[in-house]
Amino acid sequence: MPQAARPSPETQATVVFRRLRADILDGTLAPGARLKVQDLAVTYAVGAAPLREALAQLAAEGLARRIEQRGFRVADADPAGFAELIRTRCLVEPVALRESVARGDAAWEDALAGAERRLARLPRFLDGAARARNPDWEAAHIAFHRALIAACDAPPLLAFCERLREEADRYRVLASTAAYPGRDVAAEHAAIAAAALDRDAERAAALLDAHLARTGDFVRQALEARRDAASRGARRRAAEAAAG
Predict the structure, then answer these.
(1) Worst-scoring range by mean pLDDT, 6-10, 74-78, 162-166?
(2) Which DSSP symbol is given to 128?
(3) Which domains does the chain have, with CATH numbers?
(4) In degrees rounded to 5, what are phi and psi of residue 54?
(5) Exposure class string for 68-107: b at 16+ Cβ within 10 A, else e
(6) What's the whole-model pTM score?
């Protein structure tokens, strides 16, 4: 019986790249965490060569940073960097939405309406005091934003929007924003979808821009509070060490 072909180093590098990327985006690998090849080789059951290739890909994408003579770390969660990311989304995604509204057919309309209905039916958080994120809502939320711009018929633009959304979601997860005070996110989604389905491209684009910017403000504030708390903790520990 012939032996199964062993995966090539390139295939291994691609697999481990996707796994590392997913773990960075969902916060499993925390911002600033050291990415040691020896440790990762054990965790991901892969050799050093494909790991180094995957880490180089992550660095090129901005999700990891290379440290001279010291390997790699997960990219930091910098509030200023997040603000630039949101500004870019606000510039790019409304353009894709205008094109989608102009080019979308009946199948696009049905897909968008269905995505909005599915999202509206799901609770954003699971039961319990911790208000844990609902993975079904998260998946439906991604599907809704993809459906909005799906008909723009510009694959490079869609790929760029997807990458921006993934990076923004990493910050959103890290910020652990449990709620948006005084805000009805479901109503915002419904209004964007309604404007798009009415073929009012300018209104849909303006609503999407406001939606992204509003989320960006909340997450940026949460990131700044997280950073300030970490800074206070570091100063306190330094003072305790000096006093002891």
Answers:
(1) 6-10
(2) S
(3) 9-74 (1.10.10.10), 79-229 (1.20.120.530)
(4) -65, -40
(5) eeeebbbbebebeebbebbeebbebbbebbbbbbeebeee
(6) 0.79
